[in-house]
Amino acid sequence: MIEKGLDLKRLWTKVAIDNDHQSFEKFFILLNTKLIKFCELYVNKKEIAEEIVADVFVNFWNQRMKLVEVDNLETYIFISVKNRSLNHIKKNSLMHLVQIEDSPMEFVAYSNPEAEIEKKELFYKLDQAIDTLPQQCKIIFQLVKEDGMKYKEVSEILNISHKTVQSQVLRAMQKLSKEMSPYLSKNSTVSKFMK
Fold it and tell me: What confidence score (pLDDT) does residue 70 get?
């Protein structure tokens, strides 16, 4: 399998050089949901996050030739969304607490309705525990654990040190492990997520 960054770079080359609308649509589909979820951590409203992300995509389309030279497009677009989010917050002079949406992964045991209900309850409790994390810690946790980004990418996006990312993930994991410890032995799915 080809590396994700190379796929995005190849797609973007088609977008920029060939004005390929289909490649731009694929690029959009690959990143849109993650970017909205990330943006929502700053602005706390899905509708505003959707507008900001849409503006960033429009800007990317308009600047497509200039962006061919960008090495890591995913990091660059996350930074763009972060900056637009911070500008929005500054413009509106309000800082809101953030809330992470329901986990995109849902594990369902079709043969056992009780297990399905138990897993939903566990993920609900995990979401509640994540919601108690400080804002920066929560953002870092989401990018690393839910979006699968590397510490280096997160440090570039948030303009913080690699060590800060590492310590915030460790802090989040310790707090979440403590909060979820009564449930970890019962459910291996939650246990795997916590590692």
Answer: 83
Domains of the chain with bracketed CATH: 4-92 (1.10.1740.10), 113-193 (1.10.10.10)
Q: Residue 33: which residues within 8 A CB-CB, separation 6 or more? A: 104
When pLDDT is cut at 50, 70 and 90, the band that residue 105 belongs to is very low
**Predicted pLDDT at 150:** 87
Query: pTM here?
Result: 0.61
Choose among 3, 17, 26, 2: nearest CA to 69: 17
In terms of Cα–Cα distance, which of 84, 77, 2, 90 is closest to 34? 77
H/E stretch holding 39 reads: helix 21-43
Residues 6+ apart with CB under 8 A from 28: 57
Choose the weakest-confidence range: 88-92, 96-100, 119-123, 131-135.
96-100
- Residue 32 CB partners (closer than 8 Å, separation 6+): 53, 57
188 CB contacts (<8 Å, ≥6 apart)? none
